[in-house]
C-alpha cells in the first residue's frame, strides 16, 4: 500500500516538474525578477531557463524602483527650487539694471526740460522787455513828433 502510494506521488511529481513555466503562469508562488530577460520568474524556472541569469528578489527590485522614484522626486524638487531661484535672480537683475536705468533716464529728461523751460521763460521775458523799450521809445518819438506838428500848425494858423 505504502509503496504504491509513494509510486503514485512520484509519478505526479514528475508530471508537475515536466510542466514548463509560462511567462504569466509559474509553478511556484515565490517571486523573482530576471534582469537579463526582464521578466518575473519563480524559483522553479529560475533554476532552469534562467540558470545563469542575473536574478533578484522581487522585493529588492521594488525597493530599488522606490529608491529611484524618491531620487527622481527629490531631483524634481531641486529643479523647481533652482527655477524659482533663477526667476528671483532675474527679477532682481531687472529691478536693479533695467528699472533703475529707465527711472534715471526719465528723471534726467524731466530735469533737462525743466531747465530748458526756465531758460526759455527768462529769454521770453527779456525779449518782451526789450521790445517794450523799443515800443516806448517809438511812442515817445511819435508823441513828440505829433506835438511838434500841431505846434507848427498852430503857428501857421496864427500867421
Ligand atoms: Zn516559473
Ligand atoms: Zn532570464
From TrEMBL:
Record-linked Pfam families: zf-B_box
Keyword tRNA-binding: no
Keyword Metal-binding assigned: yes
Family annotation (SUPFAM superfamilies): B-box zinc-binding domain
Domain B box-type: 16-58
InterPro entries for the chain: Znf_B-box (IPR000315)
PROSITE patterns reported in the protein's UniProt record: ZF_BBOX (PS50119)
GO molecular function (one): zinc ion binding
Keyword list, A-Z: Metal-binding, Zinc, Zinc-finger
Protein name (Swiss-Prot/TrEMBL): B box-type domain-containing protein
